[in-house]
Amino acid sequence: MKHIHRLLLITLIGMIIVAAIxxxxxxxxxxxxxxxxxxxxxxAEDTVQVTMPRRFALTFTPDGxxxxxxxxxxxxxxxxxxxxxxxxxxxxxxxGQQVVVRPILxxxxxxxxxxxxxxxxxxxxxxxxxxxxxxISASGQLITLSGPHLTGDASTGAALQAIKPTSPAQYWVLYxxxxxxxxxxxxxxxxAMVAATSAENMSLSASGSVSITPPDGVVRAPRLRIQNxxxxxxxxxxxxxxxxxxxxxxxxxxxxxSNDLLVQYLHLLPPxxxxxxxxxxxxxxxxxxxxxxxxxxxxxxxxxxxxxGMLIVDADLPAGQSxxxxxxxxxxxxxxxxxxxxxxxxxxxxxxxxxAEFSGVRFTISGPGFNQTIxxxxxxxxxxxxxxxxxxxxYSVSATILINGEPGSLSRTIDxxxxxxxFVSIGDSITAGKWGFYRLPPGSSLTGASDxxxxxxxxPVGSGYPRSDxxxxxxxxxxTQADSAGYQNIYYAGYQIELNNLLTNCLNSPxxxxxxxxxxxxxxxxxxxxxxxxxxIGASGYMNALGKATVYRQHITDxxxxxxxxxxxxxxxxxxxxxxxxxxxxxxxxxxxxxxALINAIRQDRPDLGLWVARLPWRNDGTxxxxxTRRATTQSFNLSIAELVDELDDGAPVRLGxxxxxxxxxxQDQIITTNPSNGGADNIHPNSAGxxxxxxxxxxxxxxDLPRESDxxxxxxxxxxxxxxxxxxxxxxxxxxxxxxxxxATSTPTATTSPTLTxxPTATTSPTLTxxPTATTSPTVTxxPTATTSPTATxxPTATTSPTVTTSPTVTxxxxxxxxxxxxxxxxxxxxxxxxxx
Length: 838
Description:
Elements: H1 2-23, E1 39-44, E2 47-52, E3 56-61, E4 64-70, E5 90-92, E6 104-108, E7 112-119, E8 122-129, E9 133-139, E10 144-146, E11 158-166, E12 169-176, E13 196-199, E14 210-212, E15 223-226, E16 235-239, E17 242-243, E18 250-255, E19 260-265, H2 274-277, E20 279-283, E21 289-295, E22 311-314, E23 333-336, E24 338-340, E25 344-352, E26 358-367, E27 370-376, E28 383-388, E29 393-403, E30 406-419, E31 421-427, H3 429-432, E32 438-439, E33 476-477, E34 491-492, H4 496-507, E35 511-517, H5 549-559, E36 563-567, H6 588-602, E37 610-615, H7 624-648, E38 654-659, H8 660-666, H9 688-705, E39 718-720, E40 737-740, E41 768-770, E42 786-789, E43 792-794
Parallel strand pairs: 13-15, 24-30, 31-35, 31-36, 36-37, 37-38, 41-43
Antiparallel strand pairs: 1-2, 2-3, 3-4, 5-10, 6-7, 7-8, 8-9, 9-12, 11-12, 14-20, 15-19, 16-17, 16-20, 18-19, 21-25, 22-23, 25-28, 26-27, 26-29, 27-40, 29-30, 30-42, 32-34, 33-34, 39-40
Helix pairs in contact: 4-9, 6-7
């Protein structure tokens, strides 16, 4: 009997334990670890390593910065971007001696690290900021600083900016992962904080905050300083009325000795209206903030604007001026409705200051004939979801916090999220769209309007400015001129906008076409037959496409582009003399090999990259004799294009593009005769009708060579559960994947028709915790790309269908569904291009 009682007692205790476990399956949890900031280590007595996770890693040795890894594109850190046998920057004293001495770690924090070198009475200091800026200062002797010294095939840029020296110090700023520098004010009251926007002697306003707006030219991870800050060490930061997530969108540092508050914004900030660039900093309040990121294949966040949810495009190119490869420009940073070229959608949410009983995030992805919901109930290892999109189309993505497993009202939505084609158009001023539509910088000496300048977000529908129906293509900056002393670049609209609409229709897919046109650019050399010096071939020049191939490759990689539209050679065909000491008529055989070198350089890391080469257009510029010579040269170049494509296309997806020579020879009225900006003769650039015709001709080629996306097939609704057995001693909540495919009558992608930048996104500035229940998620606002926030976290949501709880297997936090639908192209596979030459 005692044994029976003992057995019953053990059974009762076991039942109580199991019940407790089942009841405790939704214990409150903390949000996942944040990205954080700089991490600094002494690797040896004479070696210091500074790492910003997912961004960069620098190694300082006695020579200087000996190693730079771009962790965004090379997460394993396998490729050193610094040239062999030379540090990234080389400081030299007046007698030519290089500063070589053991580095001293002066200070480090998550926001900035200072490393100094003292040699022969001179101290050179490097202040590394988390956003990728390095402030270099030198005191003592005057020094020279050369660099950046990069490997010849580096596809990540670094830009050095000299600051006016002030006794007794010199200053420079090095921008990592940049082909451009910021535009600095002409007067610098504090060079030690160069390129940081300061609010001096600011006290808290009646609303308890300080407002600060960086100048339009400050676009690369702006740094903010508030002097005499009285709001404490921890703060809340907003931009354009949206509360940002600390550790994801910004980092801060407070210096109690000086009462300075430093804020490092961690994104690009495109030029634009002050309302979209204004930051509000206030004393910290306990409030939950939800951020939503889309990750690339390396697991790094793609550059999304945290306010609008749009993709930020950095299309800057070195300008067309000495020294090679040209000074840097800042105007060509802009945002577009999100698009990616692969079917795998990787989502990551971050919740800071999570509310009580926070238990995870619900991801919802919807599109034509497709709907999927994923609950991640394990925040400790990161709130993520991975989805395979069934077809190229426009989708909507949202993340909603879960309170005790049920939806709260704090959510983020990105709409649209396009899965489609991205093209990069490379060429000269005709590719850029010169004089078709243009806007000049205010104060320009040229003739023309300046309204709308700069174009850095989709113009509103009905504004009168050119834009594609989906808002992804609109006027873009021509990088041909440097703008470090003020905006000099002109915004043009060429064939890309109309081609976007044509391809969206014929390919049944979202489209974006980056305009990498560059006025005056030649194929592979700045000059031909220069007897007074070099022809400045490739990287030794600043007016040839081969010298900018590394930048083109970075643009292709960052956008995931699979197609390039190439049209270059018109400027090579301009010379008419055979006896000029600087520049002479180029033989077609030389042009052919220059073009081959350019194509190989663009495709260097992408053997599957589809590339179309257009034949150069008819022209009538110069005297009658000059025009005849240039046309003859152009025709010989076009024969070389056809020959080269025929040679290359057996082993590479290189195809012939449109025949622009024949078209414009037959439609000479589509070439402008007078330059509208100065009244001079032109006779080479298309007018608006000519650019429309170019769009039609490109469309005729691409709509045949690329496959059309099929329409979604009606399939029944299904719910998928994906269990994964894990080594766990107790039951845990499962993540549930729900996939719904429903019939749709949509035959074309559901592109938004008015993707505009909203100056006041739908977010309140003071999210609060409430006891009142809600189970609603934020509705998607159609008609414009949105990144909406509904910032009220509930403590007791209304009852909805409870998530499934398993008693043994645990479902992974980021399951991948395999919904039915049309076949899709596998990531990294070669695109289908029929062998059709024209």
